[in-house]
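Q: What would this chain look like folded?
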Amino acid sequence: MARGSRLSWMRSKRYGVIDVGTNSSLLLLVEAHQGSHEFTVLYDDVEITQLGRGFYATNRLQNDAMERTAETIRNYLNVCDDHQIDDLIVTGTSVLRDAENGGDFLDLVKERFGIAVEVISGEMEARLSYIAVRRDGSLPIPANESCLVTDIGGGSTELILGDDKIRQMASLNVGAVRLTEAFLKDDPPSTEQMDRLREHLGEMFLQAPRAGSGSTLVGVGGTITTLANIAAHERQP
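A: My prediction, written as structure tokens:
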């Protein structure tokens, strides 16, 4: 498949996104419905690739983490070929923004697969999270109603407050992997480690948007969905 160049008049166009995060990599494939803004999900997958594992001690990506993530990208590209994807975008987020040798990973992917990874800014990551929530028809939030969206990732957490448009947003370096490697040295962590973590979070969240009492909180990303699955399981008889 000539990725990003296939055109077909026989069916609706198919789009793919590979998102390379600090802790996980995701693949979403959809088919757009001609003449509308609707689409059908063809494939949706997440793999725990841990590109950021060991990064925060050295500010450098580790070779095994890069190889592990590249192998997942290879598998995802094969899935894209099987589904005859017309346009494919590959994005990178927090750990690729911060790593001293992030360019090494981008070069590796380019050389092996002939595709470019677009490293998006924290602001763009926040904006895209908010747009995705606002365009989700399964969430009954009127356009003019205040909404706070949060996305807890491995390297960063995005918070976006808005109504019919974005009013405030922040991308904070308080991701789950980043905080674990920086503060939680034991399992279970000591009281002192937890106290230091809470103090750090209190300082970091001074930069966060402040939602009013009438705002709806919407969480996206792996941390939130995992907690939701745990809660749903605990409610089962």
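The longest strand covers residues 39-47.
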